[in-house]
Design a protein that fits this description.
Blueprint lengths: L4 E3 L5 E4 L3 H13 L6 E3 L2 H10 L4 E5 L7 H9 L10 E5 L4 H10 L3 E4 L4 H13 L4 E3 L4 E3 L32 E8 L5 E5 L1
């Protein structure tokens, strides 16, 4: 069975949640994945103060903070100048009503995860962020990763048109592929991920 490895050594994070228990659990998961110790904020104000002086590689934020929503915080980040605006942002929520998920998405979140979160789900979402290159979009009312994406089944190997050419097989995606994280954002609004 093929397993993809994600090298997160040196990757920094900010965890924003008023619940210290949840922050601790998520921080333990991230340390288990090989990330640096996390930075913490209890609310949006603390997060903003931290982000004015630091540029973490990843932000994980609770959907509803004591002083603002995750969408408000993410919109603020997306309008900052410099590489911080491209920072991948994951929203954790116990409430998965469509309006809550849509608010986080429309605020500029990369992905929304329902609580309670397991290490496997968190790792899979980090891997998804690393592999799926979504363009960064700026409009009058939205700044963030492109919200238009679909879950498409893997191709069945059959060519659909007479003009279709078989795609070359990339051996780099076989067993033991390692993905390396870098703090430098790419033009797609995600950190550069380099296969090693």
């Amino acid at each position: 069975m093929s397993q993809t490895r994600l090298n997160l050594h040196g990757v920094t994070s900010l965890l924003v949640d008023s619940d210290s228990y949840t922050r601790g659990l998520v921080a333990q998961m991230l340390r288990g994945f090989g990330m640096e110790p996390s930075n913490f904020a209890d609310d949006g104000k603390q997060a903003k103060n931290f982000l004015k002086h630091q540029c973490p590689d990843l932000c994980i934020v609770e959907a509803v903070l004591p002083d603002m929503t995750s969408a408000d915080l993410i919109k603020w980040v997306r309008h900052l100048k410099g590489p911080i605006r491209f920072m991948p942002t994951i929203v954790l929520t116990g409430y998965t009503q469509l309006r809550m998920v849509a608010a986080a998405r429309d605020g500029g979140a990369n992905i929304v995860i329902r609580k309670p979160v397991s290490p496997k789900i968190l790792f899979d979402r980090l891997l998804w962020i690393a592999r799926v290159q979504r363009p960064f979009v700026e409009t009058d009312d939205y700044v963030g990763p492109d919200r238009r994406f679909r879950n498409i089944e893997p191709p069945d190997g059959k060519l659909k048109r007479d003009t279709d050419q078989p795609e070359p097989v990339d051996d780099e995606d076989e067993d033991g592929q390692s993905v390396r994280a870098s703090a430098n954002p790419s033009a797609t609004g995600a950190p550069k991920w380099v296969a090693t």
